[in-house]
Amino acid sequence: MHAMNLKHLILITLAAILIHGCKSSNNNLYEFNPVKLEENKITLSEIADEVTYIPLDSKYQLGNIFTIVFINNAIFLNSKDIGILAFNREGKFISKIGSIGRGPGEYVIYLRFCVDNISGRVYVADINKVIKVFSATGQFIRSFQLSEYGDVIENIEFYNSLIFIQYGIQFKSADYDWIICDTLGNVGKKQNRHLPKFTTNWGGNNRVYMFENRLSYYNSFTDTIFSVLPDLSEKPSFIISNGEHRYPRSNISMAQFMSNKYIDLTKIFETSHFYVIRYHYYKAYLALIDKYNHNSFLIDLKLGNSNYLDGIENDIDGGQFFIPEDYFTESGREYIVGIVYPYQIKALVASKEFKNSTPKYPEKKKELEKLAASLKETDNPVLVLVRLKK
Predict the structure, then answer these.
(1) What is the pLDDT of residues 306-327, one digit of tens each?
(2) Per-domain residue ranges for the chain?
(3) From residue 53, how far is each of 307, 316, 375, 380 by CA, in Å?
(4) Strand order across the 187-192 sheet
(5) CATH class of the domain comprising 37-388
């Protein structure tokens, strides 16, 4: 009896330790709450030590750019009404990846694509849950279908030689948050959905990003950004706070939607030092959250006629306010990527503010002046590479 009581006591103690450990771990996760953030600006020189500009070749007149992927010596992007294009690191056009259409080897949807960092092959999530595969030079190779796992593919990402597929969970037929398959479409791992099934008339934004050797994903209805580890297990990364600012798991009216009272994460990624979050909550904001002390920097982006009027102040060369779009690493250094338009550069360089400015690196200011002189206002956008401090 005494042995049984001792065994029982040990089991209770171990359970208490495990429960306490889980609670402590959850409590240590950063909780992003837009209601509590206060405006607090930061300059580019505080986080970065170099800015580089890549003017994109004007062979195709680009519309809105949705996704930018840096792989080895190439840049892949998708643009409105054109599809997916590849450029070299100087911005020279390399190839068009397939084309928009309903014929063999064409795609109707091109918003979601990923690139194999070894072969350069491009995987495009098209309508009817079909994945279409193209060579790095744009030639159609094959396609495969993933129709039985969910109604809508929200994101696709290349991860350790496998393909990560995230599904929209606002449909009752969606049994999984995500699946992993090989490059032939053979499914190896299926992650059961974390939430009970529901339906809405609004899908929100779903985000996927890579940091170090893990992939993280989020959808508008869950509290947690989860990270998928190399062994394909999951762990929580950080939390989006609950409250009236979250989308309900039910239908909403057009008036509710237009009120902008629900938080909508439009961009999200990590660096070694920050969580970087762009979002709408009544207005457009950019937040940088220090991962170590959870101090936050918040910028009201102030939307103008067609572009944001604010961002991270570029005190390195006196250039345009910087708005992060994407993140990548290369040769042990971290980079965040932005987009600026030639007319913005030319107008800024011609302004009295710029002429009277004294950035940290005056020689960089002169380089920006040369860039402005080389551009036409109608040229394609310019990519801005910001190298983060070590």
Answers:
(1) 778 899 999 999 999 999 999 9
(2) 37-388
(3) 19, 13, 12, 13
(4) 153-159, 162-167, 176-181, 187-192
(5) mainly beta
